Amino acid sequence: MNLAAVPSPTTAVWHLGPFPVRAYALCIIAGIAVAAVIMERRLRAWGR
Predict the structure, then answer these.
(1) Can you tell me the distance from the alpha carbon of 26 to that of 4, in angstroms, rounded to the nearest whole number?
(2) 19 forms bridges with which residues in the sheet?
(3) pTM of the model
(4) pLDDT given for residue 12 in this prediction
(5) Residue 41, Cα to own-chain centre: how many angstroms?
(6) 7-17 in b/e burial notation, b at 16+ Cβ within 10 A?
(7) From CA 41, how far away is CA 45, in angstroms rounded?
(8) What's the mean pLDDT in 22-39?
């Protein structure tokens, strides 16, 4: 039994009009947004 296995999504690309949106790109963008929010909070707490 492998508890660390993550199943692959059934769809890796969604089409929003003429633009293809890939799942890994959304994950990268979400990671950047979360990092920016965390950094902003830390800088405000630090006094900058």
Answers:
(1) 22
(2) 16
(3) 0.63
(4) 83
(5) 19
(6) eeeeeeeeeee
(7) 6
(8) 93
